[in-house]
Structure formats: structure tokens, C-alpha cells
Please model this.
Amino acid sequence: MTRRGIDLTALDSAGLFYGRQTLCLLATAQGIPCVEIIDNPCFGYRGIHLDVSRHFFPVETIFRLLDEMARYKLNKFHFHLADNGGWRIRIDAYPLLTRLGAFRTESDWLEWWSYGDRHYVPEDTPGAYGGYYTKEEIRRIVAYAAERFIEVIPEIEFPGHSDEVFAAYPELCCSGRAYTSGEFCVGNPLSLKFMDEVLTEVLELFPSKYIHIGGDEAPKTRWKECPKCQARMREKGLKNEEELQGWFVLQAIDFLKKHGKTAIVWNESLNSGMMPKDIIVQRWMDKKDRSVEFANNGGKMIVSEFYYYYCDYPYGMTSLKKTYSLDPYIKGLTEEGKKNVFGVECPIWTEYIRDFDRLSYMCFPRFWAVAEAGWTKRENMDCESFEERFEALRPMLENIGIKPAPRSDWNPNPLRCLSELRKFFKGTANLPDIKNMIHNNHA
Model:
């Protein structure tokens, strides 16, 4: 950029697009400064994750979020479409998924989830809470994202977190009755048929190279009592239920591979010891560091570290400085393992986030902090500089209806941290299984 004009060059259209985003961020009332910028991203995968199951967000809200992703050069939108809160995508082969599994009795997650009397209701029930995306709406979202060089990666959860499926098709769980099991009956051939047919329709809607299939947190208790699941274990020579889950996840992985797609799974899928190296593992909480071992041995890993990157927890638990401080080359990675860090992703789970204003408060500026970690080399990052730059852009965001957290909330002092944590955990204390509170919040 000189007084004579702006010269913007890049290797491809995406690079030109990101260059224009940089120009927009540099613009002030006095114009654009005369500078030379030579820039390229640190990681190819720079994502955010949005859970639309616990609370549903309409298409227009998704568009607004994609606009903000593009502004700070985030390029992967992980779209969490199916979970216990409701099924959010139309599947023609299984119309009851949205007819009976996309709406529930209440909007308030805590009230609905806590007291053991949670139920889904038919779509046309007066006062029901929920929603889903039609196929045309999904196509609009995918196209809108593509115009901004954002890849939409859908997640359909297997084999756990599937109560909403069994409300519509109870024959797919071990008991054959809704509200009695959290995971598919792996011994039932209908479960495999369901998985293949759902993924077939998902592939028709999402051109992404990557499909997320979950693969985490199936309780597996029912499998121990289920004759079909036990028969499947004997048939396949599996030692335990952990391997049974691994076998089921492998069926989805192989299906996607046959269709030219790469599966992404949460790090719990590594517990079976059966995962191939040509998948991608998303690390969120991995106390045994199996994901690090996976990367060190040649597998690709997305870093979504819970204690740093999860935006649904209060700033008193995950301050902006804490989010900004995480080096994606996490502890334990060898030089070879560092080469296999595929990128970073910042998740937001929506148990307690019902609207865009609350989403904005929780995610901004933390989304942008993770975006900077995905783009900028660690030695060039500075949290104080980032905070100043974000504040300078706050008026622009507020003018378009984005309401970030005020700067006074980003890095609370110890007393305020304690107060925020007390309020947060008091709000979750009535969950039916408090020791798994974090897990229920995860996926």
C-alpha cells in the first residue's frame, strides 16, 4: 500500500479474499496506512464449532456468524447438527427424525434436562421448542459459506448422544424403547443401515472433504446386557465394549472413505486402539494424551483444548488471556507430531446460550483469539496488542449488531473468577449426573 494505491497479490482466490479482509481491518477514518504486508496462515484448518442441538439457531444467525468468521479468516465451520437436544437436519429416508426428534417440551435446557422427565414432542405441538434445517436451507448455508471461502463440516453423532433418534425410531436402541438408552444398538443391522442412509443424504448436501461422526461418550452400559451387541462382539472377536464402539465407528469411517471423504472423530474414539491413521482426531480433553501419541505416529490432530478454547464457560473460568496463551503445538508433541497438527478449532456448546446476543458475548473476542492462533506464528503474537486491536474494532462490530463482552469482563480478578464459577456450577448442580457435567456439555 502506497500513496499511489494498493497492490494486492495472492496465489489463489482465497488469498485475495483474505487480503481484502486485512484491508478492511486496517481501514480507519483517516484511511489505510501505507504498509507492506507479506502474510500467510500458520494452519490450514482454522475453525469454530457451533452446537445447534441444545438451542436452535435460524439460518440468518448462521449467516451472521459466517460473516464474522470470514472477517478474521476462519475457514472451517463445524456444524453440530444432531445430539440429545434435538435432530436438526431433514433426512428423507427417516422423516420422523425431524417430525418427532427436533422439538422438545421446553426451551430451557436445565429445566428440560435436569429432572429425568425430558421428552420430545411432535413438530406441530403448541408451544414446542426446537427446529431443523430443510435441505434447501442447508444448501443456502453451504453456498453462503463457500462465497466466503469457508468449508462447512457437518457432525452427525455415532454411536452415543442419540436420545433424539430413539424418540423417533426406538427400534435402533438396545431396549427398543425411547428414553432408555443413549447409544445405538451396535448388534442391530438396522443401526448400520440407518448410519449408511443418513450419511448418504448428508454427503449429498455437504461437499466438504471432511465429515465429523462424533465417536465419543457412549455409556455402553446397555451393550453389556444386550444379546445382539454381545453376539456382535463374539462374531467380530472383540474383547470388550470399548472395541465394540471402535468397530462401529470404523463402519462409518469406511463408508466415508468409499465415498472419497475423510472422517473426523473426537479423541475418545482412540480409546479402542482401532483407529486408522488416515482419519483426523479432534482433541478436546485427553488426559492420557492418546491424541498426542496419534499425531506423533503420523495421524492428523485438530486442537480444541477444553480448558483454553471452549467458549461456553464463563470468562472467570476461561479468560481471554488463557485462550490466547495456548500454543497449538501442545506439550508432548515431537517435531514430527507438530507437523501433524492440522489446525485449531474453538467450540461453543449452547446449553445456556439461547440467542445471538449471548452467543456474541461468550464468543467475542475469544473466537478471534483462536483465529489469530490459527493464522499467526506464536512468536509474532501478543495478547496486549490483540486486546487493543479488538477494542479498536469494537465500534464497527457494535454498529452491525455484534455485542462482544466488555473489556472489563475478559480477564476477571480472582474474586470475580470465584463468583462466576460459583454461579455457573450452581446452575449445573441439578444435572442428573454431575460427575459427567463436563462431558454432557461437550458433545
About this structure: The radius of gyration is 22 Å.
